[in-house]
Amino acid sequence: QVQLTESGGGLVQAGGSLRLSCAASVGTFTRYAMGWFRQAPGKEREFVSTISQYGGNTFYADSVKGRFTISRDNNENTVYLQMNSLKPEDTAVYYCAAGRLATMSTVPYDYWGQGTQITVSS
């Protein structure tokens, strides 16, 4: 089984940067594609970014493309989300997920972290 633990959330001003980490407790980390999703108050959970098992393919939501960068370190069983040029609309709880496909859909993701709060002030 897989346990995911997010860290790095917090409060930043607009234009600032944060780096989220997701540590996976799993036997074979490279079996899983990893994704980041977020959910703002009163809104549906939305796709942010995903990365394939060996990091060869990455995808981003249009709203974050050019500002966010996803990466993974398979030696450390960790996925990262570097967030630059943050905007107030980026405020949400961010969730790490592990699944069999690097996709924007939540369906292939079997395991989810507890979430970490990102608040961007104007």
How would you sum up this structure, described in words?
The chain has 122 residues and is mainly β. It is 0% helix and 52% strand. The protein is built from no helices and 11 strands. The strands form 2 sheets. Strands 2, 4, 5, 6, 9, 10 and 11 form a 7-stranded mixed β-sheet that branches. It has a 4-stranded antiparallel β-sheet with strand order 1-3-8-7, with no helix packed on it. β7 and β8 (78-83) form a beta hairpin. It is globular. It starts with a strand and ends with a strand.
Key phrases:
single chain, 122 residues, mainly beta, 4-stranded antiparallel sheet, 11 strands, globular
Secondary structure blueprint with pairings:
Layout: E1 3-7, E2 10-13, E3 18-25, E4 33-39, E5 46-51, E6 58-60, E7 68-73, E8 78-83, E9 92-99, E10 109-112, E11 116-121
Parallel strand pairs: 2-11
Antiparallel strand pairs: 1-3, 3-8, 4-5, 4-9, 5-6, 7-8, 9-10, 9-11
